[in-house]
Amino acid sequence: MRVAFVGGGKLGFPIALASATKHDVVVYDVAPTIAEILRTRIYPHREIGVDALLSSTTLHLVDDVKAAIAHAELVIVAVQTPHGAEYEGITRMPKTRSDFDYTSLKIAISQVCEAAKNQRKCLSLAVISTVLPGTSERELYPLLNRYTRYA
């Protein structure tokens, strides 16, 4: 299967690496870090198994979302959904509640959907970013179009 990851951070990159052992995988990320990791074959974070995967990976970096969509049947979005430091889990949970910030996720999904529409290419879209229950229906489904099927 031809897979594209949009987001190659601490979540997306290791999963893209593992996926590349079985599938034809590309990754796109706004940060230049991925190019350096693939060039040097050195992963800057502690993640069991990544060093072995890096030594023989077929994972490729693409320059933009359009190239990722041109490659893929399945797009996996793994971009940040940050929240306030008071919700990090190292201190007592505040009495107030706060949702994650879905700005980057919504931008990424909008770009994927727009590229699929422009290329007239149907694809499946999966989100592995952290979202609370109800977020997909409330925030993400409205961004989809006839070319994107949400998994």
Q: What would you call the structural class?
A: alpha/beta
Instruction: Indicate the mean pLDDT.
Output: 92
Q: How much β-strand is present in the residues?
A: 15-25%
**Main sheet, how many strands, which sense, barrel?**
6 strands, parallel
What is the overall silhouette?
flat
User: Spatial order of the strands in the main sheet?
Assistant: 3-2-1-4-5-6
Helix content class: 25-40%
The number of helical elements comes to 6
Order of H and E elements: EHEHHEHEHEHE
Fold blueprint:
Blueprint: E1 2-6, H1 12-19, E2 24-28, H2 33-40, H3 50-56, E3 60-61, H4 65-71, E4 74-77, H5 103-119, E5 123-127, H6 135-140, E6 148-150
Parallel strand pairs: 1-2, 1-4, 2-3, 4-5, 5-6
Task: Quickly list its features.
alpha/beta; 6-stranded parallel β-sheet; single chain; 151 residues; 6 helices; 16% strand
Protein described:
The model has no long low-confidence stretch (mean pLDDT 92). The longest helix has 17 residues, at 103-119. The chain has 151 residues and is α/β, with parallel strands linked by helices. The relative contact order is 0.18. Strand 1, helix 1 and strand 2 (24-28) form a beta-alpha-beta unit. Helix 4 crosses helix 5. A six-stranded parallel β-sheet has the order 3-2-1-4-5-6, sandwiched between helices. The chain is built from six helices and six strands, in the order βαβααβαβαβαβ. The chain is flat and about 50 Å long.
